[in-house]
């Protein structure tokens, strides 16, 4: 008789659990329970059973997080209304160009007492890793029709671009923290410029061209809805890889490819978005499962009071203050500035960037950086997940009571 391997039992638990979760997922969208919370927890619990190999999960995690982030960036961007965004771009622009650098600067200053003995570049690296946000952890907000579209669109654009904008700084701080600072300032400026310029150029070109090819295939009955979905998934990956090959930022490229694709194919590829969203959800669940299985046990075991306080300060003080300041002088009300400041969950980008820099920074900083990043992800998943639905409901009620206001002026009257 063939013996059942422990791994088969572990995978059976995972697949059965995912199937059962999918049966109640829509109902859970209206509660404080989120998919990242559940799959992080399942992975964490499975790590104590020995049914799934933790070493193999750690090996897969980097690739799974990267692929998931690329697809979600493309998908989120493809659903943005470019016309409305061009009219109302001030909020995401301010949050990206002022709020993000300010988050890193404030995060560095605030982290110094908690990371005594660290080098300045090591502290700055931690602040930069904790700065990017992940709308996937706040889906109850960015997909909630009660929240004004302008607010949801601004959060989506910010979360889609801030990880790509943060990456050049993260790599710079990694090099300096790892004492590989022989590169000249000119080389670093050139590197940063290539990352931030070539990524959008390649992404827009790939997205627009891909959309036009898909529409041509539709018009000439050369494809079907199922294959269009596969093609869109491949297009997201192509945008990422094409940008990296020429020195651009692949994450920015994936996001801008989605913008270009959505602008050209608007109203013509609904099934593509549905197909990608279902596949994207599966990848998200799997990535958080791997994170909980491979890294969460070690991170929680080594979570100190100083690390916990630093993460909480990042969530409750650094981003809210930076976003509040960045939106001063705009038409965003005080409550909207506070809402934007709180809904900046740390997710896949934070974990992925930590995994990316750990082999490069080396020394005594590598393990603490990974511990901080992974603990920030699960703490953010818990806090932002619990608060997403009630906060979105409360915010929408307050905004609705104000009547016509900047938060709703981009919406048609019927949607207000």
Largest sheet: none
Poorly predicted regions are 410-416
Give the helix proportion (percent range).
Answer: over 70%
The CATH topology label of the domain at 42-188 and 271-406 is Na+/H+ antiporter like fold
Count of alpha/pi helices: 17
Share of β-strand residues: under 5%
Q: In sequence order, what are the helices and strands, one letter per element?
A: HHHHHHHHHHHHHHHHH
* CATH top level assignment of the domain at 42-188 and 271-406: Mainly Alpha
Shape: globular
Distance between the termini: 65 Å
Rg estimate, integer Å: 21 Å
CATH architecture classification name of the domain at 42-188 and 271-406: Up-down Bundle
Number of strand segments: 0
Structural class determined from secondary elements: mainly alpha
Mean pLDDT comes to 86
Give an overview of the whole structure.
This protein is mainly alpha-helical and 416 residues long. It has a domain of 283 residues: Na+/H+ antiporter like fold, CATH 1.20.1530.20. It is 76% helix and 0% strand. It has 17 helices and no strands. The longest helix has 36 residues. The protein starts with 5 loop residues before the first helix and ends in a 15-residue tail after the last helix.
Brief account:
By secondary structure, the chain is mainly alpha-helical. It contains 17 helices and no strands. It has a domain of 283 residues: Na+/H+ antiporter like fold (Up-down Bundle), CATH 1.20.1530.20.
Helix and strand layout, with pairings?
Layout lengths: L5 H23 L6 H12 L7 H25 L3 H6 L2 H22 L8 H10 L9 H4 L6 H29 L7 H35 L5 H21 L4 H16 L4 H25 L1 H6 L3 H22 L7 H9 L5 H14 L4 H36 L15
Helix pairs in contact: 2-12, 3-10, 3-11, 3-12, 3-16, 5-6, 5-8, 5-14, 6-8, 8-9, 8-11, 8-16, 9-10, 9-11, 10-11, 10-12, 14-15, 14-17, 16-17
